[in-house]
Amino acid sequence: MMTPVFNDWKGKQLDDVLLEVRDLVEDPDMLTAQRWREQGGKVAGHFQVYFPEEIAHAAGMLPFKMRGAQLEPTQADSRFGSYLCSIIKTSLELCLTGRVELDMFVTHPICDAARNLAPVFGRNFDYPCQILYLPQNPNSGHSVQYLTDEYGRLQRLVEEVSGVAVTADALRSSIRVFNENRRLLRELYDIKRETPWLIAAEDAYALVASAGMMPREEHNELLAHVLPLVRERDTKAEDRIRVVFEGGFCEQPPLDLIRMLGRSCYLVDDDLLIGLRWIVDDVDTAGDPLHNLAYAYIERSSYSPVQHDLRKPKEVMLEQRIDRARADAAIIAAAKMCEPGLEEQVAYVTALEKRGLPHFVSEFEENMTSFAQLEMQLDTFMENLLFA
Amino acid sequence: MSITAGIDVGSTYTKAIVLEGDSVIGMAMKATGFKLTEVSEAMFDAAIADAGISREEVQYTIATGYGRHQCKVKDLAVTDLTAAARGAHFFFPATRTVLDIGGQTMKATKIDESARVKSFRLNDKCAAGTGAFLEKTARYMGFTTEEIGGLMDTSKEHVTISGVCAVFAESEVINHLSQGTSPADIMQGSADSLSARSVQLLKRVKAEPEYTLIGGLLRWPRMVDTIAGQLDAEVNAPAGEMVQYTGAVGAALLGRIRLNKLAEKDAVEQTA
Asked: What is the Cα–Cα distance from A25 to A106, expressed in whole angstroms?
């Protein structure tokens, strides 16, 4: 029986719990992965955006989301071209510097840079480094079966690394744990949409991000403790502009940037770490669990610039997100050097201009530290809306 | 008539204003210190008490200034630029350029006839362009901030303080003192230096008349005269303490605009 890897919040007041979660998420030492390994646990590192964590969880591994970190990629820089985004460098840097020790690594062909991460990791580490080929064409009638087979391949790799045979029942049990987590995360986003003054943008983000760093049972306990306390808060509702943030599906803006955004407006919905919230409803537990996971990926999922489903035009999905959140405006961001993100900006902006919805276009980088200019621009944008 | 409040949480002083219509009915000011949430709430309550009303009677509150986000009693936060523009326009409707010199910042803002910000420039991150420069100069010579105005008023001769750097200025002050220069002349020399920087900032924003000067430093009439002289133009400055309260007044006025907009929105929604 493993002891919890993140106990630091227990017995503390809500504000202190949230402080602990923010500290955990910002700490490039990724303490939860270290604590897991110290107990003999194995870690399955998976790169952004989506990974079926249930499969690693069912084998008793810690699925660990590799989402970069705020650190200087001094070693990883030599493994990549300068024209590439930051997250692939800092994700490798986490491992090269020994901050995160993995037992396997999985990436996805979401872009050229991410696709090449598996061979780059493979040249530097002895553990298996694989590409999980999520279907490029989700509209094919065969995509669910294809993905079920691909998940089967992943399951065999997980079994080989963990030394644990993943039974259907174990997988169903993991799906239940993750269904509960998805429910709690939806509840968190309900709070953001309905009563955004009750939780700061950076706190909501840190709560989501911490999901990828600890066993989901622990994360469920954390959310189940925090969310009722958040709802009970006596915080004054302010007259801020309601905004949807789009552009955080892969590389993550630094917490300070999210804090700054949350000061200028209410971030009522976003695509930050969408992979952790990719499946928008419960995954069925009856029947073949791998098929159910594959079905949910295709049929019960959100959207992002790295999945190309003709039934879900991204700009239409963004407008739906805006409508559901009753947003007054949108921030259309993209990480620097992120081809999928920058490409999608064009479609988003075109749709919002046609609709006449005010929007603020910007770029960010996970290692940026100066926000004064951006804040001034954003405040000016908001004040134009408030006092027009 | 609507009652709105503006709280300007500045780096040096926190000011709160309560407006009923266009009339100031309550005001309060205190050194900001380090507890921004507490001081903003305390000044809000003090201004309300000064107005003889209760919190519930205030229909909308806007916070501005560098500590605006720490204010918990606000309905909204706005930038210093927007609040200052609105406040300056309220006192002098023909204002097209606002110069705001506070304890730690200097801002030049061009505005249009509706008080909307057209462009702006901020001082470099350097104390030599702010009130801190004068405060340090006064402190070197053993005077308090409140004595600056009186010192400048008694200056008789012009001395040059380079003003390139507030730290290096200390050695200049010591040199002048060792040569027998009077503290009043040194103080005025520092004010001249600061004024020169403010005029440079105004040029960078392509300032146009009318010019309205606001902020803590402008509470000393000699400072207003010094800038007017260097700018070689007539300038406005709100009377008395209002020169310090302009941002708070602007915030309260913006609160009224927002209040009206929300009422319009409610009316539209009810009609629909």
From this structure: 21
pLDDT of B123 = 80
For residue B260, which residues of chain A lie inside 8 Å, CB to CB? none
pLDDT surpasses 70 at B256 = yes
Confidence band of B269 (pLDDT split at 50, 70, 90):
confident
Determine whether the interchain pair B262/A239 forms a contact, defined as Cβ–Cβ distance below 8 Å: yes
Examine the domain organization and report whether B1 and B38 are in the same domain: yes
Q: How far apart are CA B225 and CA B234, in angstroms?
A: 9
Q: Do A239 and B82 make contact, defined as CB atoms within 8 angstroms?
A: no
With contacts defined as CB-CB under 8 Å, which chain A residues touch B261?
A: 386-387
pLDDT of residue B134: 85
**CA A105, A108, A114, A117 torsion-angle sign:** positive
Range of the domain at B82: 1-92+241-272
Of B74, B79, B262, the CB nearest to A383: B79
The pTM for the full model equals 0.90
Q: At CB < 8 Å, which residues of chain A contact B?
A: 236, 238-240, 263, 376, 379-380, 383, 386-387
Cβ neighbourhood burial of B264 (10 Å; 0-12, 13-18, 19+): exposed
Same domain, yes or no: B72 and B205: no
CA–CA min distance A236, chain B (Å): 7
The whole-angstrom distance between B262's CA and the closest CA on chain A is: 9
| In the predicted structure, residue A388 carries a pLDDT above the cut 90 | no
Dihedral of the alpha carbons of B157, B130, B243, B39, in degrees to the nearest 10: -130
B101: domain CATH number?
3.30.420.40
Q: What's the gap between Cα B203 and its chain centre? A: 19
Dump pLDDT digits (tens) for A288-314: 999 999 999 999 999 999 999 999 999
Closest CA of chain A from B269, distance in Å: 14
What is the structure's pLDDT at A81? Answer: 86
Q: Are residues B143 and B51 in the same domain?
A: no
